[in-house]
């Protein structure tokens, strides 16, 4: 990655996860993976048990229940761990897009992930004059289709809405997207899927 673009991206990497353009068709399921934490089987069992007990279904993220009746943006707005991402999406003017029909798959950096960026990077990307750069960073976190953790394979490459690719690595139950680890998989919303990640993804230099 060229130093100039890397600095620009890092200088505005502060945005977070998502983006847009028209959605594509769902990708077929391939092999099942079990990301860090709860396995896919455990998650499915808990959802079934919750339904039987009359409890709300969904995954807890940032102290809030992410439920499939809400869109991606509405769910993210309830997470105290994704306030930076939500602010970035709004600053980039992508909120309405991500509230659309989709489907989208969003790799959503946590607040801690944004905090790992160089000092001043997030503030710089949030400036009105950096809106285009911010959009580019966020779009690099969005796939225009619905992809569950079970669809992710080691060595797979996914094309983001900005046309660039991210690489999937699966080893010993850990799923990574480029250099970021998936910490919470399969957060289902009405218009797609969110996978929480622990690093901000940097688009490649042109």
From TrEMBL:
Coiled-coil ranges per UniProt: none
FAS1 domain location: 69-201
A UniProt-annotated Pfam family: Fasciclin
Listed name of the protein: Fasciclin domain-containing protein
SUPFAM superfamilies referenced in this protein's UniProt entry, alphabetically: FAS1 domain
GO (cellular component) term, any one: extracellular space
């Amino acid at each position: 990655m060229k130093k100039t673009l890397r600095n620009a991206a890092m200088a505005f990497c502060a945005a977070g996860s998502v983006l847009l353009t028209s959605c594509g068709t769902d990708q077929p399921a391939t092999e099942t993976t079990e990301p860090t934490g709860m396995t896919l089987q455990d998650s499915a069992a808990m959802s079934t048990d919750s339904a039987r007990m009359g409890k709300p279904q969904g995954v807890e993220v940032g102290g809030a229940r992410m439920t499939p009746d809400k869109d991606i943006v509405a769910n993210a707005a309830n997470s105290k761990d994704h306030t930076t991402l939500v602010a970035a999406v709004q600053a980039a003017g992508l909120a309405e897009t991500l509230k659309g029909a989709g489907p989208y798959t969003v790799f959503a950096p946590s607040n801690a992930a944004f905090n790992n960026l160089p000092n001043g990077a997030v503030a710089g990307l949030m400036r009105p004059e950096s809106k285009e750069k911010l959009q580019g960073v966020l779009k690099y976190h969005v796939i225009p289709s619905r992809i569950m953790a079970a669809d992710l394979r080691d060595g797979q490459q996914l094309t983001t809405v900005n046309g660039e690719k991210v690489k999937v690595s699966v080893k010993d139950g850990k799923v990574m997207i480029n250099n970021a680890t998936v910490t919470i998989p399969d957060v289902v919303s009405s218009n797609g899927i969110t996978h929480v990640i622990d690093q901000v993804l940097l688009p490649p230099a042109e």
